[in-house]
Design goal:
The protein is an alpha+beta fold. It is built from eight helices and five strands. It has one domain: Lysozyme (Orthogonal Bundle). Helix content is about 40%, strand content about 15%. It has a three-stranded antiparallel β-sheet, with helices on one face. Strands 4-5 form a two-stranded antiparallel ribbon. A hairpin with a 5-residue loop joins strand 2 and strand 3. It is globular. The relative contact order is 0.21.
């Protein structure tokens, strides 16, 4: 069972506003913080990836009706697609006993489902692996979606095990590094790390409760 209490550095408490979920936490110094997590638009595959998979790069379900020469109405019917690289996330979830919704949340927060993403620090791919982590996880090509997702999930599983199932500490280590977590004896007092943890957990729960948003709807044309 993955824990969600910020046992080492504070407590995450969900609340709601009209358009966002508010997560409150208390840091190690007793200072209270609030982070608003707004509802996401449906996740979209990057144009290059969408083209490679034969999917539309963006857009939603649409309906078209018009008067043609034969006065026929053309209706475009939407069919929900899976989220980007879902097959790799599901494979990783089976291999490393992690919820697929958690893997999807990490992918979304880390890269926005962009397999070519590179951070300022040099982290690469869907799960934003540093070069040394990629090598440790036996990832030869960090920009290969399957290798990256499997490597990132394996790394996350190792961290979850290392922290006794505490998901918050595992995410803190995924973001800031295990050495930083050890140095501070818990979640490091970095605002960006708190935002990262809050964002991933919020999306994880949203995906688990409401489903993972599709990348984009497929369409088929029906002539009436």
């Amino acid at each position: 069972m993955l824990g969600i209490a910020l046992s080492a550095g504070g407590v995450l408490l969900p609340g709601k506003t009209a358009s966002a979920e508010v997560f409150r936490y208390v840091d190690r110094d007793g200072k209270a913080h609030e982070v608003e997590v707004h509802d996401d638009a449906p996740a979209e595959a990057p144009p290059s990836a969408a083209a490679a998979e034969g999917q539309p790069a963006s857009g939603g379900a649409t309906a078209a009706a018009g008067a043609t020469a034969g006065a026929r109405a053309v209706v475009v019917v939407g069919a929900t697609l899976d989220f980007p690289y879902a097959e790799h996330a599901r494979e990783a979830a089976r291999l490393y006993a992690l919820p697929v919704e958690l893997i999807a949340a990490v992918m979304k927060v880390e890269s926005g489902f962009d397999p070519g993403a590179v951070s300022r620090a040099g982290a690469m791919g869907l799960m934003q692996l540093m070069r040394s982590t990629a090598l440790d996880m036996r990832v030869v090509d960090p920009f290969d979606p399957r290798q990256n997702v499997l490597g990132g999930a394996r790394h996350l599983r190792i961290l979850v095990n290392a922290y006794g199932g505490d998901l918050v500490l595992a995410l803190a280590a995924y973001h800031a590094g295990p050495g930083t977590v050890a140095r501070y004896g818990g979640v490091p007092p970095y605002p960006e790390t708190y935002r990262y943890i809050t964002r991933v957990i919020a999306l994880y729960h949203r995906y688990r409760d409401r489903g993972i948003p599709p990348a984009a709807p497929a369409t088929r044309t029906v002539v009436l």
